[in-house]
Amino acid sequence: MRVWADLTNTAHVLVLRPLVERLEADGHDVTLTARPLSHTVELLEDWGHPHTVLGYHGGVSRLGKARAALARAPQLLRFARGRRFDCALAHGSTDLPPACRALRIPNTTMFDYEWAALQHHANCRLANRVLVPDAIPAERLARYGARPPKLVRYPGLKEEYYLADFVPDPTVLEELEPPEDAVLCVVRTAPSYALYLGGSENELLPGQTVVLARTPGQRQAIRTLGLERVHVPERSVDGRSLVAFADLLVSAGGTMNREAAVLGTPVWSIFEGQLGAVDERLAREGRLRFLADPAELEIEKKPPGAWRERIRRNPAELLRLALPWLA
C-alpha cells in the first residue's frame, strides 16, 4: 500500500520512524513530507530517509499560525493529488487531516497532550481515527469530536514504543567531554513558538545551565549569559542518548521529559501550560517532578545503566492501531 506520513515537529521524527521502518519492511511504500521547524529537517537528514519539505512555521501568534496553515495546506493538496495514497498518518500535524479529507484519503491523527484545543478541534473532526495514550480520559476529548469508535487509546506512553529497541550512543558525550565523576545535567529550553504556551518563556531558564536550545535566538541568549561549563550545541544532537546518560534533566518540553521518565533519568518539569493527563500520571507515579526553585534540584549521580531497566512495548502493536486500513 502507499502510505503518506507528515512530520511537522522534531518529536514526530522519533515517534514515526519505527512505524515507517516497519511499514517499509512489510513491503509498503511510504512517502514523507515535513515542515521546517526546530530540528525536524535535521533529524530527517540524519536518518537519511527521502522526504519533501513543504511550508514554514507560522511563529507564536494565532494569526501567524493561521497564515502558515493556509499556505501549507494547498501545498500538501498539490503534492498528494495524483499519488494515490491508500492511507496517511501524522502525530499532531494540523495540515494532513484537511488535505486527506479533501482527497478522501483515510488518515489517523495521533497526539498525547489534550489541551492544544485549536489544533484538536480541527484534527479530531477531519481525521478518520484519533489515536492517543490511555492516560487521557475519553471525556476530555469528546468536545473535539473524538469519540469511540473514531477514538482509540493505546496502552502506555508513545516513548515506550519508539524507545523499545533503543541503545544510547556513547559518542554523544565526546563533544562534551564531562569528567568521569561529574554530574551530567541536561536542560531543555521552552518551545517558545508553541501556541498553547502563548509564546512565554519560563523565568527559571536564564538562571539554569542550558544545553539543548530549540532556536538560534535561544542559543544566542544562552551564550550571552557567560556561564561556565555550559555547552550549547549548534545543531541537533542525539537527545535520547544524552538523556539516557544524564544524571538529571530539567525541561520545559513534553517528549524529552517523558523520554527521561522511561529511561530512568530523574526529571524536573518547568512546563508552563496546562498539565496534561500523561504528565499527571507520571507525577502520581513519582517519575516526574515540577520545579519552582532551582534549590529543589537533587544534583547527584544516578545508578549506572538505569536506562536498561524500562518498559518496552512493540511498535508493531501501535502501528496496528494507527493504520487499520493496511492490507
Please tag this protein with its features.
globular, alpha/beta, about 325 residues
Note the topology:
Blueprint: E1 2-7, H1 10-25, E2 29-34, H2 40-47, E3 52-53, H3 62-80, E4 87-91, H4 96-103, E5 107-110, H5 117-126, E6 129-133, E7 151-154, H6 158-162, E8 185-188, H7 216-223, H8 239-245, E9 248-251, H9 255-263, E10 267-269, H10 277-284, E11 289-290, H11 315-322
Parallel strand pairs: 1-2, 1-4, 2-3, 4-5, 5-6, 6-7, 8-9, 9-10, 10-11
Helix pairs in contact: 1-2, 1-11, 3-4, 4-5, 8-9
Could you describe the 3D structure shown?
There is one protein chain. The longest helix has 19 residues, at 62-80. It is globular, with a radius of gyration of 19 Å. With 327 residues, the chain is of the alpha/beta class. The chain has helices spanning 10-25, 40-47, 62-80, 96-103, 117-126, 158-162, 216-223, 239-245, 255-263, 277-284, 315-322, and strands spanning 2-7, 29-34, 52-53, 87-91, 107-110, 129-133, 151-154, 185-188, 248-251, 267-269, 289-290. It has 11 helices and 11 strands. The strands form 2 sheets. A 7-stranded parallel beta sheet has the order 3-2-1-4-5-6-7, with helices on both faces. Strands 8-9-10-11 form a 4-stranded parallel beta sheet, covered by helices on one side.
